[in-house]
Write a sequence for this structure.
């Protein structure tokens, strides 16, 4: 089901954002981020997130477009229960390159990066969550979906799902989101990358 961006609920709305039925374009505010404790010791819950409520057993997909050039520039999808339990996944700029990044947080954050493809100015991210298992995949063309992560995530009645963007080191990143869908969880074999 296509999601109308105008129906989302903001957590930390950016000063500049334009939402219409089929797209959302935002410009990040200064020093925005989501993180909890691990390695750095701090807690940040200031990133931009536009959430839509959904029940367990879903697959969410979104297209992300932007020019990621500064340390920790990031944009993608978030699945959130509350400030201590959430996942953000998408592009993140680190060590001079754009990577596909996932942070799984259940009390404390972890972080993983991969680079199944390097063209990350226009890509898709897909998250499937069902019965405590979260499958995260990315694609350049919305047809071939390499696996980024398989993770445990708590089972609750409802989740908030939607686009997220952060710039911990600056402001002014412009990101466009489109093709946002939430559908019943895909049931394909884990190694079926279609």
């Amino acid at each position: 089901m296509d999601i109308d961006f105008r129906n989302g609920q903001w957590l930390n709305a950016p000063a500049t954002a334009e939402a219409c039925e089929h797209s959302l374009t935002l410009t990040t505010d200064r020093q925005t981020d989501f993180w909890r404790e691990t390695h750095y010791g701090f807690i940040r819950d200031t990133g931009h997130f536009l959430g839509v409520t959904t029940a367990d057993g879903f697959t969410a997909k979104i297209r992300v477009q932007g020019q990621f050039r500064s340390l920790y520039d990031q944009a993608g999808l978030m699945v959130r229960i509350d400030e201590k339990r959430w996942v953000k996944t998408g592009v993140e700029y680190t060590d001079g390159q754009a990577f596909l990044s996932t942070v799984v947080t259940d009390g404390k954050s972890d972080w993983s990066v991969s680079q199944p493809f390097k063209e990350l100015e226009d890509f898709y991210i897909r998250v499937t969550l069902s019965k405590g298992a979260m499958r995260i995949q990315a694609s350049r063309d919305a047809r071939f979906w390499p696996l980024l992560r398989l993770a445990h995530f708590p089972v609750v009645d409802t989740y908030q799902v939607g686009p997220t963007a952060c710039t911990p080191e600056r402001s002014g990143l412009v990101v466009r989101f489109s093709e946002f869908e939430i559908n019943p969880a895909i049931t394909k074999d884990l190694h079926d990358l279609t």
